[in-house]
Design goal:
heterodimer, A: alpha/beta, fumarase, 7 strands, 28% helix, B: 60s Ribosomal Protein L30, Chain: A, four-stranded mixed β-sheet, 12 strands, globular
């Protein structure tokens, strides 16, 4: 079963999700990875506005390959989210509602997510051509100098993701392997 | 003495950068499809189906399989009876990488300085390894390597007394620590022996061996099988969501070492283990 969600994401919608749920996301999401997170943290600490409104927003940890002429976007799979852990609690305090990435998060991020009512979604790492097929529009909205790490506003249609960490402490990276191993012992 | 213009090396490297990033080698494709059929855990089956759909999508749209089109690891076996003309080898290889990554719309993921950063803009320099071998051929392999998995690789200088068991424990610990980060199902290149520097290269070279082609040394073929079985009992599964298929294969390369040492290196590769080869 697949749950369909559209942006902006509401705290009430996110609260219903549980680790392992399959979700299709449609609407506007923003790419940001290492270098953009560094700059966003600096802006927030200086009390300056960000390139996009954080409240209810969804960040995709991704840096695409270049689009071919006439193409919307290149390959665009997720990067390892853990590298953004240091700045994520700050973004969550300022309204970030969801993240899409791959890989484990720190206990600090998982705790900050629960406090903020935010959700961490997973897209399969390396399935970057598949992700591109769900992107219908893309434009760079900040920091073009960062190349593939620039902040992009993406319009996505039914991007298939899985809930990795939910608002009540559920963590698929723990519960998924544990449930599989338990099934083998039966 | 055979003369080869380095322009041919540039052309071959450029082509292989693009090919390797759009199409997985047949052995990796076959293994991924077999893994999908062998999984019965629902989330694992679904994940492998998406990984295989991605391969079809990349081929159909001529897009990179993964947006991390990697650093270009280039391995050249240069016949000692070959005379290269028209320029120097390093420049020729880097020009091939520059052209392949630009003309192939591949991501430029290389920074000039490890601490001060700064993208080089064309994915150069390549990571070039050259071996001089008998004969008058040039064998070139391009293996683009993403850093989601490279970052999960580890090296250890074990004590000789730790022996086989120590190696097994270190490999399993490496996979456990990596968890979902290196994009499982992974491929493990394991180097054993040599010195601190050589063991890491052995591990990388182990990743160049086609999957399901065991070591020619029965002792190590048996160790590869044992490691694969143990890794796949960890339950990490495709994408780390749980399941049987944590690794597709384990390849071991060894060399003699010092009486006081047992170096071990584990180079982790993702499900998009990419490589292309050509003989000039």
């Amino acid at each position: 079963m697949q749950i369909e969600l559209s942006t902006p994401l509401s705290i009430a919608q996110l609260a219903k999700l549980r680790a392992g749920d399959n979700v299709a996301i449609s609407g506007t999401i923003y790419t940001a990875r290492d270098a953009a997170h560094k700059r966003m943290a600096e802006l927030l600490q200086a009390g300056q506005p960000l390139p996009f409104a954080l409240q209810g927003s969804c960040i995709y940890y991704a840096g695409p390959s270049p689009a071919k002429p006439g193409g919307v976007i290149g390959a665009i799979g997720p990067t390892t989210a853990g590298r953004m852990d240091a700045t994520t609690p700050l973004l969550l305090q300022h309204g970030l509602a969801a993240m899409i990435g791959k890989g484990a998060r720190s206990p600090e991020v998982l705790a900050a997510m629960q406090q903020a009512g935010a959700v961490y979604f997973g897209f399969i790492g390396g399935a970057a051509a598949l992700a591109a097929a769900h992107v219908t529009a893309s434009k760079i909205i900040a920091w073009e100098d960062l190349g593939s790490e620039a902040v992009r506003e993406l319009t996505v249609q039914n991007l298939p993701v899985t809930v990795l960490a939910d608002t009540v402490g559920g963590d698929l990276y723990k519960s998924g392997p544990a449930a599989y191993l338990a099934s083998r012992k039966k | 003495m055979r003369e080869i213009d380095v322009q041919h090396i540039t052309d071959a490297v450029a082509n292989m950068c693009i090919q390797a990033n759009q199409y997985l080698p047949p052995d990796v494709q076959t293994t991924l499809h077999a893994a999908q059929r062998a999984e019965h855990w629902p989330l694992a089956t679904r994940t492998l189906a998406q990984i295989n759909m991605n391969l079809a999508q990349a081929a159909d749209k001529q897009l990179p399989i993964c947006q991390d089109t990697g650093m270009a690891c280039v391995f050249i076996e240069l016949g000692q009876d070959v005379h290269l003309t028209g320029g120097n080898l390093d420049d020729a290889v880097n020009e091939g990488v520059r052209r392949g990554y630009t003309e192939g719309y591949l991501r430029k993921s290389v920074v000039q300085d490890p601490i001060r950063r700064g993208n080089t803009g064309d994915n150069t320099p390549a990571l070039l390894t050259v071996h001089i071998v008998p004969g008058q051929q040039v064998n070139i392999t391009v293996a683009p390597k993403g850093f989601g998995s490279e970052n999960m690789s580890r090296i250890a200088m074990l004590k000789p007394a730790q022996g086989r068991e120590g190696v097994v424990d270190f490999v399993l610990e490496t996979v456990r620590l990596a968890g979902p980060n290196p994009c499982p199902p992974i491929v493990l290149g394991v180097g054993i022996g040599g010195s601190f520097d050589k063991v890491a290269l052995l591990a990388k070279q182990a990743l160049l061996r086609p999957l399901n082609q065991p070591s020619q040394t029965p002792y190590y073929a048996q160790l590869e099988a044992e490691l694969l079985e143990k890794v796949n009992q960890l339950g990490i599964g495709p994408a780390g969501y749980g399941g049987k298929t944590t690794a597709l294969d384990v390849a071991i390369e060894t060399m003699p070492t010092h009486i006081a040492g047992l170096p071990v290196a584990v180079n982790v590769s993702c499900h998009a283990t990419r490589r292309a080869s050509v003989v000039l």
